[in-house]
Amino acid sequence: MDGFMVSVATGAMNSLIDKLTMLLGQEFRLHKGVQRDIALLNGELSCMNALLEKLAGMEVLDPQMMEWRNQVREMAYDIEDCIDRYIYQLHYEPQRPTGIVGFFHDYVHKVKELLARRAVAQQIKVLKDDIVEASHRRKRYKIDPELYSETTNVVLIDPRLPALYVEASNLVGIDIPRDQLINLVDDGDQSFKVISIVGVGGLGKTTLANEVYKKTGGRFDCQAFVSVSQKPDVKKILRSIICQTMEPYHASTNPDKAVISQIKKQDYSSTEAGDVEWLINILRVFLKDKRYLIVIDDIWSTQEWMTIKFPLFENTCGSRILVTTRISTVAKSCCSPDHGTVYELRPLSEADSMCLFFRRIFGSEDLCPVNLKDVSTEIIKKCGGLPLAIITMASLLADKSDRREEWVRIRNSIGSGLEKKYDLEVMRSILSLSYSDLPLHLKTCLLYLSIYPEDYKINMHQLVRRWIAEGFIKDKSGRNLMVEGKCYFNELINRSMIQPVDIGIDGQPKACRVHDMILDLIVSKAVDENFSTSIGDETHRLASQSKIRRLSVDYCGQEVSVSWPSLMLAHVRSLSIFGYSEQMPPISEFKALRVLDLESSLKLQNSDLNNVVNLFQLRYLRIAASRITHLPEQIGELQFLETLDLRRTWIKKLPASIVKLRRLSCFSASGARLPDGVGKMQSLQELSGITVYDECSTNSLLELGNLNSLRTLKLTWYIRESRKDRTHYTDSLASSLGKLVSSSLESLSIINGPFSGYIPFDSWSWSSSPHLLQELYIPKCCFQRIPDWMASMNNLYRLCVRSKQVTKQILQILGDLPALLDLELRSESDDPKKILIISKYIFRCLKIFRLYGSFVGLIFEDGSMQKVREISVVVRAHKAKSAFADHPDLGIRNLTSLMDLNVWINCEGARVQEVTVLEAAITDATALLPNHPTPHFFRENEENMVKDDLPNHPAPHFFRENEEKMVKDEAHMQEKMLE
């Protein structure tokens, strides 16, 4: 066993043993009798821990053995809480006064220390007796069976990971049902219709609906895709439909301009925003004359359907609603006899099942070893054509591809009733098998996801930091804990236990969701293990044990009342609150709290946080409440705090004591001022959402350079351009950045506030190149020329810079960066007669390319940018015909991977025909590309076009769609970077 500090199998046993060993040290000066008791206690616990680790490898436990395990595990938690309180009392020393007051203070402290030593001696004796009795009980009842534990080799990151989940087209058996549904959705009939997709969980209903949605959505005026789940939040669903359906309509041209603007300004994170009746009326009026397509995913009851259906106006424009559900009666109720169709999704055929299974493991059936063919066929047969079951089994076997005995063992473990029915219990048995095969640390991390509400999008970084705070992650081979935690996250995706969300340009997921079937499984196991307790969902039951270790309260979507006095809160290590509530928990009662996450608790006031400073074990604090404007002045007393996330608060000024948080590794805010003394926070690895105001001292900027562990820095620059000593600030920042980039900095973002002007970035001389940087976002740091050190940034995959003039040399330097995937390049004063040429020898890995400037345009040569998916450029229409004589389409036809094209056309000095011809040439070129992207054109300076007698040829309608989607406005770009 790896000896993780805290796990579902051993509880806090490993952490406790470490702390007992520490108590035997000289600094605690315990009585010899107490030291003997601790030594005996430590020995007994070590033996028990070894047995607990063996028990963790057993799938079925004898009731006596299970009861003994549970008691020992709970006892370990209690002993650690006791030791933590003692250590805190012994070592927590507030600043002592001087003089006569200080003398009495020292005297009182010594008395308290003596009492603490006596108290711990008595407590240790009691705990020793309890542990000895537990040891004797094990012997009396002969709880020592023959145990065998098997080790599992975990591949931390599978190189096939991005390919396994990014493209839904990689699934098999979807073509026929997709085409059938497309015909039902787009059959030319102008009447209103509802199509219900029904089938058991795991058949791929959502995937199928999404494929139909993507293929047909462009044929409708507007569209939306929303998930309902078992506990629907009607307001959230309606707001999501409104937001998505109104997205293509520009407020300035829409007759409902005022209403749409008001809708778009709503705070969608707030559960109180928007009255249901008002939202219904808005939606009915808007959809009345629109041909819309709306997918309602995962309906569980007829009542839910009636509530959601009411605002969806039944017009005669050919509108369609696509519903997915697991319940046949619900599917039929959604489709009335007059206008609806029930589509029953069937399991995969044997051929498709085999194709999916072998593709997932080996790439194809031909690559499957001969000795595994027969057992593979039997496993596939037992999966019963359920895609989720097949994928789960394939992921389970992926690292056992050459071990036939493992395949046979897994085949024999699958329930025998699977071939006859496809109900949720069978699916759960398959998923339970996959869960049992997880290493202990991944089981622990997976069960922790039971604290989140259904369909919740779980941010990867927040989740990993919570795992760290709970003690679930152990440093291996000197790797950073965040890096290790991301490996855990990726491995859970690799084993199909969680679903990736928000895939970044680098192919890595930024968040995840838990499938309903997996959530049912882990909630049940978490309750059985007394690992976590959830309140607010009728499917979540309180653990039978009286002591709560991790508590989650979900106020979203329904009335929930929590009787806090009736709960034993002193042992809670993690408290998570989701949604709005008038009830605030008694923070002072949570004596053992390590993690506190308050999300959208709008009732929360500044005063409610006063007792947080007494949570001496707190490691993770996240506050997502807009009413919070200040932190307690004593926040620096939280000596164990590692993560402080204030991004969804209005805190601008931080308490002076915050620099006392010497263990803080992640600090995130939303415009908080850079504190003086920041250099003392030596453990910081991430510092984001910080602003540098005129009131800040240059010393604070210089101290940034002392943060040798800093990996991420995101700040906003508010030093005014008119300030006389502005150079001192920029030089101080340059000095600090020079130190940071030579140590550990991987991500740097500098955003300029109003009146702050450009920062002369290239005038800074750094002693070494920023070779570790992976992201560099400095949109208003203007280069006179690209500095020499930029050519050595071999790890850089995202870059946003501004240059005085974009030249061929600049394109060559940036084009040679081997890892660059996302580039935004802005030019200030290019020659309006210049044409830039993108050759096939540069930007070979680039996927996103944005180039903005005042030049004529650019040409993509044959073979250039073969991996680029998205391009945004500015082109001058005047004299374009002569400038691009050989490439009237700018060479767009050469971009074989292009999926999204945005072209801003500067119409100044051009004739209408010149603009129209340019747009037509580009449109024709995109039609020849494999992905058939639809170009988006945006005409600028139309009022300065040359007047002539030529007929006016306005751009086709689709040229003007989705303008509000485009990210050209710098303020919007900055907001996206700070998310």
From TrEMBL:
Occurrences of domain Disease resistance R13L4/SHOC-2-like LRR (ranges): 571-934
One biological process term in Gene Ontology: plant-type hypersensitive response
GO molecular function: ADP binding
This protein's UniProt keywords: Coiled coil, Leucine-rich repeat, Nucleotide-binding, Plant defense, Repeat
Keyword Cytoplasm: no
Family note: Belongs to the disease resistance NB-LRR family.
Protein name per the record: Uncharacterized protein
